[in-house]
Amino acid sequence: MPAPPVLGLILAGGQARRMGGGDKPLLRLDGRTLLERVVERLGPQCGAGLALSANGDPARFSGFPGPVLPDPLPDQPGPLAGILAGLEHAAGHGMARVVSVSGDAPFLPEDLVARLCAAGPESGIALAASGARRHFTIALWPTILRDDLRDYLGRGERRVGAFIDRHGAAVASWPVEPVDPFLNVNTPEDLAAAEALGLRSGSEGHVSGRSSGA
Fold it and tell me: Quick one: which residues bind Mg(2+) (predicted)?
């Protein structure tokens, strides 16, 4: 079955303060970068290819299989600016939807995009959840929201959850056992825990993350 014509947007614009600075997606987990693992998981699910949201010199991501998109607004106003960059890039190339994911989430589910696409109408937001927690930056976004998002950011608003609540969102949920598929690496302790989970899986961190239900 062909992958949906969705652009996959990997968010890598954070400043990684809890990791001591630098690019979290370039940290290594069992010999491979977090970014490589996210690309491996997300790429086959996105029929329109991948893009990376990151500021600064794009050369440090020279191996990435897609464009590197800087924030379209100054002062690094957070993940919504990266999502706006993805929406504007996708709209400029005739794409209707973008799925955003964190660049530090190495166990993304293999059915992420398909289930988000099935969760709600094409013109709406669909949000991923695991257990009782919603993941605001792991979501499917229609490009028709880009003008409203730019206006929202232009008013000094930064909260991802508030923008989602403004429009409403369908939710697709995954279990957190045996591994939360949206586990992200924020601290050195998180990185050690992720490595332990990957080794325990017996497949270099390639935990399935599939869900049996909505």
Answer: 104
User: Would the annotation count 71 as a binding residue?
Assistant: yes
**Residue 193 placed within a domain:** yes
Q: How many whole angstroms from its chain centre is CA 14?
A: 12
| Per-residue model confidence as pLDDT tens for the chain (214 residues) | 789 999 999 999 755 444 445 688 999 988 899 999 999 999 999 999 999 999 999 999 999 999 999 999 998 899 999 999 999 999 999 999 999 999 999 999 999 999 999 999 999 999 999 999 999 999 999 999 999 999 999 999 999 999 999 999 999 999 999 889 999 988 878 888 888 876 454 444 344 444 433 3
Residue 139 belongs to domain spanning:
7-201
104 is in an annotated binding site: yes
11 is in an annotated binding site: yes
9 belongs to an annotated ligand binding site: no
Pairwise CA distance, residues 31 & 79, whole Å: 27
Tell whether 43 is in a known binding site.
no
In a domain, 208, yes or no: no
Confidence (pTM): 0.89
- Sheet strands (E) in the chain: 7-11, 28-29, 32-33, 50-53, 68-69, 97-102, 125-130, 133-142, 169-174
Cα first-last separation, the chain = 20
Within a domain: 63: yes
